[in-house]
Amino acid sequence: MAAVAAIGLTLGACQKNEGGQTEDGPSEEGEAAVVKTGEDNPNIRTERRTGPRRKVEQIEPPMALDPVPSDVIQGADGLVFKILSEGSGEGSRPGRNDTAFVHYTAWKMSGETTFNSRRRNSPQRRFLPQQPPGWVASITDMKVGEKRLVWMPPELARMGRAKKPDETMVYEIELVKFDSAPAVPDDVAAVPEGAKRTKSGLAYQVLQRGDGKDKPDGWDIVSVHYTSWKTDGTMLQSTHTRKRAQPVDMMRTHKGWSDAIQLMVVGDKIRAWVPPELLRVQPGVPKDQMVVYEFELESITDRPEPPPVPKDVAAPPKNAKKTDKGVFYKVLTKGSGSESPKTSDGVVVHYTGWTTDGKIFDSSLVRGEPAQFALNRVIPGWTDGVISMVKGERRRLWIPQELAYQGRPGAPAGMLVFDIELIDFRAIPARPAHGGHMGHGHGHGGGNRGRAAVQGDPHEGEDEAEHAEHEDEK
Asked: Do 289 and 230 reside in the same domain of the chain?
């Protein structure tokens, strides 16, 4: 059997991904050690690197740092700075939603160098909505080519609940260039009069009509350009700043995205006001307020229509059997084998999954190839339901929430229904657990590793370092 890849039923497999996943799958380890993107929150590192730190080359500061020179400029935001060289820009400065490219060197007040971006031979990319307040205040006050020395207290030099830096840092910042963000819509704060609404509560306006004829189905792959904002005008994410459209697996995205995109034909551009109950709970996404999106549909890739929704999807029928752990099942087609897989085995299966309201959230049949995964790395209900199957058997499982995703944000909720065909199985070598997160919302099912390039939600898995690593803060 080919090398086993975890599928989207996993609660934790080796993932590096909103761009950057390597596998999908059902596992049990929990959240990713490194999350390269959450929805609207590109490349936030949730766990620091391990191992010895690289020794930082010591660079002499341009002047004595402590005490602070008497001729510094006092900024309204509490920062003090000295301009080392004037910029050549024609007066334009980055806005709060722009992406800046900077070189910088960082020192402690003692003069110890903690970081120097110039050793990388390319400036750092900094997506300003996700930078510490002191950095935003400094960069948005600079012109291209300007270099300044900034004394930044810890409360202005760190993000959110971060604990470092825990002392005043001094940064020599040079603004190399910046990319302007899309303009903030005038009606971002509230749904305007005249906007249409879907049954789910999503509001939208058509900004541009396309020349396409067909709308995407809920299992197709689409390519979209989009920008998203909080209601205060803070930009969350934009494919335009990355200069490439985002592929989206319609089966795997959340309801706010699927409802909006399925309104469109190729070439359409719409603005959508998505209420929080239609959004996936992820870092960086407001939990209690709507998010405003502009979508432009570039292309639709048709995929095979999934199997019909089972008539008994809402609840297990009276003739369903029940395992000791509480999984209901019904044999749809008897198999020809005589042996069943062990919990440590790898299996090859075709499967489709639905919520009890008939919403499909994953299917290997739609993708056109069987899924491969290890039974000891899947949600408990899958392991329990599959270990008594034989080769060739088709079985329907009703898995209660406590044996599925247990109410985890972003995952399918409640009892889940799966049709599974066991194609093959065999023993596989044990492997250490990884701290990855391959659960729903980050891709279900898929022995096909290449499929990770297509995201269920365009905010997942950005492969660009939009959230710069503050090595001086580690």
From this structure: yes
DSSP string, 310-374: PTTTTS--TT-EE-TTS-EEEEEE--S-S----TTEEEEEEEEEEETTS-EEEEHHHHTS-EEEE
Residue 11 domain-assigned (yes or no) = no
- The C-alpha atoms of residue 330 and residue 328 are separated, in whole angstroms, by 7
168 and 205 fall within a common domain: no
Instruction: Record the tokens describing residue 427, joined without a space.
Output: 């023993």
- Same domain as 143, residue 106: yes
Whether residue 203 sits in one domain with residue 173: no
Last residue of a domain, one of 285, 301, 317: 301
452 in Cβ contact with 18 (< 8 Å):
no
* Cα 295 from Cα 194, distance rounded (Å): 19
Q: Does one domain contain both 157 and 256?
A: no
For residue 107, give its domain range: 73-180
Would you give the distance in Å from CA 467 to the centre of its chain?
Answer: 13
Residue 232 near residue 189 (C-beta atoms within 8 A): yes
Between CA 387 and CA 322 the distance in angstroms is: 14
pLDDT tens string, the chain, 474 residues long: the values are: 433 333 345 443 333 233 222 223 333 222 222 223 333 333 222 334 455 667 889 999 999 999 999 999 998 788 999 999 998 867 789 999 999 999 999 999 999 999 999 888 899 999 999 999 999 999 999 999 999 999 999 999 988 777 888 999 999 999 999 999 999 999 999 999 999 999 999 999 999 999 999 999 999 999 999 999 999 999 999 999 888 999 999 998 988 999 999 999 999 999 999 999 998 877 778 888 999 999 999 999 999 999 999 999 999 999 999 999 999 999 999 999 889 999 999 999 999 999 999 999 999 999 999 999 999 999 999 999 999 999 999 999 999 999 999 988 768 889 999 999 999 999 987 554 433 322 333 333 333 332 322 334 433 333 333 333 344 444
Does residue 437 form part of some domain?
no
Is 208 part of a structural domain of the chain?
Answer: yes
Tell which of 139, 156, 180 closes a domain: 180
Tell me how long the chain is. 474
The answer on 211 and 124 residing in a single domain is: no
Residues 218, 247: one domain?
yes
Q: Are 221 and 247 in contact (CB under 8 A)?
A: yes
Secondary structure tally for the chain: helices H, strands E: 6, 23
Six-digit token string for 445? 């099912």
Q: What is the CATH number of the domain that holds 209?
A: 3.10.50.40
State how many domains the chain has: 2
